[in-house]
Amino acid sequence: MPQTASTPPVKPPTPRQRARARTIEDIVRLGREHLALHGAAALSLRAVARDLGVVSSAVYRYVENREELLTLLLIDAYNELGDEVDAAVAALPAADFAGQFRALGVAVRRWALREPARYGLLFGSPVPGYRAPVERTTGPGTRVVYALVALLDGAYRAGHLAAPGGHATVAAPLAADLERIRSQMGLAVPDPLLARGALVWTSLFGAISFEVFGQYGAGTFAAADELFAHHLAVLGDLAGLRPAGRRAG
Amino acid sequence: MPQTASTPPVKPPTPRQRARARTIEDIVRLGREHLALHGAAALSLRAVARDLGVVSSAVYRYVENREELLTLLLIDAYNELGDEVDAAVAALPAADFAGQFRALGVAVRRWALREPARYGLLFGSPVPGYRAPVERTTGPGTRVVYALVALLDGAYRAGHLAAPGGHATVAAPLAADLERIRSQMGLAVPDPLLARGALVWTSLFGAISFEVFGQYGAGTFAAADELFAHHLAVLGDLAGLRPAGRRAG
DNA sequence: CGTAAGTCAAGAGCGGTGCTCACATTTGTT
DNA sequence: AACAAATGTGAGCACCGCTCTTGACTTACG
């Protein structure tokens, strides 16, 4: 559980502060349930108030407005996804980069299919009129891509990332972006692999979004698991990851 | 312009029917503007009625409800995107499959960046409580993927689609899906290439969605055009497309 | 031509939403 | 006990989707 951000660093929390924190937690929990059931656009403060057993205007004592609750739910969802992805990646041997990549992809997909409405809030069309406060959401919101980039950088430093073939080149303006990213994140991955990593990143979420949002026609792919496994394998190749040592080899 | 679906095949339209059709067109046009400005979830029949200079209940004479208007706008957007993609692909020589693929991707991205809210309606998180009527939207909604698949199939039949390398395999249940798709659409592309085509399809929209929905952090990629061009080149390779004859070679 | 059928705009109204505000109540502290 | 802060209440505003009735109008037909 993250500590409340506004807690002063010295005093222990008073009972009232504890009760207040608990109420906010309840509001977020109820909001999460409504979000999961009816989607982001249908999230209603009045409904949350009803479930909380309180009059509608009372929740404004705890949450500034609907946007604020959306922000809390956004951070909540980002962190839950980040936790599951981190755990899935950490469950594999440190040297099994291809396996870690597969685990990352599988973890994101599993969470997305389990929480489609929350996934839509994070990675779907932006909620109209709502702009996520960058200073509060970038941290949790970048956990997955940080895990992916760390994975690729570790593989590269371990000599497990193959140089790409193909006809794609990295134009100069793009190289400038990549150099900035590399220095900001302390990476060693060279441009062609880093650019491919960006593509793999967006492609992973593209495949998951198509499945979660029902962009494939209904019944087009009955073997959704196998389709995603195939895509993950291709994307792993695309990133330059060599599969770990052959089984029983 | 597609003819109105409910027109009887014999009688010419009466003035009343013409006026009615014009009013519906106006409603769709105004709805398109509201959609583009404020997003799908904020689309309001009352606001459309105000812009139309009519009382709110009057629009229900022409449009059954909000969902119906959303459906009309969905079809409208799918067709506009499909028209632009078809035109972009058709502008290239029939044998330049790699160029056609690039043109397809560029056309989708251009439309998406020009019409982010409408793109979000088509490819973003589904509108809560709204289920698109399959019988009316699958036709327009599959135009882009049909164009992509036709492109790949044509390239394969012309011997311009290279067999893929890598470690990915097509599991048996997935092969059954692909076989069904192949027979339904009359394709010749074999499983590994068809599965890769599906990945290229989702990856293309993944890259575009990330850009349109602002999933890249602000300022992460200043060279958005070059990034997308890179991705298109890699995805073309991934699909198996060989670049057209070297320039001046 | 006159009447009946069909069509349409208008307005009231229902229940829902986000949000604000004045007021009452509870609670912790002095 | 008294006070002040925190919290809950209910009314109210403006908006939303949607329904229904009413009156006016257009069209078609006898």
From TrEMBL, chains A, B:
Domain of life: Bacteria
DNA-binding region: 44-63
Keywords: DNA-binding, Transcription, Transcription regulation
Residue intervals of the HTH tetR-type domain: 21-81
Keyword GTP-binding set for record: no
Organism: Arthrobacter ginsengisoli
Protein name, UniProt field: AcrR family transcriptional regulator
SUPFAM superfamilies: Homeodomain-like, Tetracyclin repressor-like, C-terminal domain
Keyword Transcription regulation applies: yes
